[in-house]
Specification:
The protein contains seven helices and two strands, in the order H-H-H-H-H-H-E-E-H. The protein is mainly alpha-helical. It has a two-stranded antiparallel sheet with strand order 1-2. A hairpin with a 2-residue loop joins strand 1 (121-124) and strand 2. The protein is globular and about 45 Å long. InterPro entries: DinB-like (IPR024775), DinB/YfiT-like (IPR034660). Residues 14-150 form the DinB-like domain. Pfam families: DinB_2 (PF12867).
Length: 162
C-alpha cells in the first residue's frame, strides 16, 4: 500500500480512537446536545456509525469480495432521521462498539485490496453517474469525521469531560 493511502487510513482511524473515549461518558452526557435544538451526542455517533455501515455493506465489502457495488443516492434527511431514531433506542456502548467495528472493517478490507482495486473507479450499473472511488471516499469521510469530532471535542472539553 502506498504512502498516500496509508496516511488517509491513519486519518480515517482517528474516529475510532475518539469513539473509544466516548464510551466512558455517562448517559446524561450521551443525551445532551452541543447546542439547544441540535442533535445529541448519541445521535451524532449513531449518524456516523450508520454511514460507515452503509458504505461498508454497499461498497467496501462488495469490492473486497469482487462483487458489484450497490450504493444508491440516498435521501440524506431521511437517512439522518433514521440515525437519530436508532440512537434513541440503542444503548451508547452498543453504538460505540458498532462504530468501531464498522470503521475497522472498512480499514481492514481496504488494506487487503490491491493497488488496482484501490484506485479503480467503481460504477453502479443502474446509474452510471454514481461512481465510487476509494481515495475520494476516504477524503470525504475524513472531512465528515472532523466536521463532527471538532465540535464534540470542544463541547466535552468545555464540560471538563475530555
Amino acid at each position: 500500500m502506498n504512502k498516500e493511502m496509508e496516511q488517509l487510513l491513519l486519518a480515517f482511524e482517528e474516529w475510532t480512537l475518539f469513539a473509544k473515549t466516548l464510551s466512558r461518558l455517562e448517559e446524561k452526557t450521551w443525551n445532551s446536545s452541543l447546542e439547544k435544538g441540535k442533535w445529541t451526542i448519541k445521535s451524532i455517533v449513531s449518524h456516523m456509525m450508520l454511514w460507515d455501515r452503509y458504505f461498508y455493506k454497499e461498497a467496501i465489502e462488495k469490492i473486497a469480495l469482487n462483487q458489484q457495488i450497490t450504493l444508491k443516492h440516498l435521501d440524506f434527511d431521511e437517512f439522518n432521521r433514521k440515525a437519530v431514531e436508532y440512537g434513541n433506542r440503542t444503548e451508547p456502548f452498543e453504538i460505540v462498539d458498532k462504530a468501531i467495528t464498522y470503521r475497522h472493517k472498512i480499514m481492514n478490507d481496504i488494506r487487503g485490496l490491491s493497488e488496482e482495486q484501490l484506485y479503480q473507479r467503481y460504477v453502479d450499473p443502474e446509474n452510471k453517474d454514481n461512481v465510487f472511488y476509494i481515495p475520494q471516499y476516504l477524503k470525504d469521510f475524513i472531512w465528515h469525521d472532523q466536521h463532527h469530532m471538532e465540535p464534540l471535542k470542544q463541547y466535552l472539553a468545555g464540560e471538563g469531560l475530555l
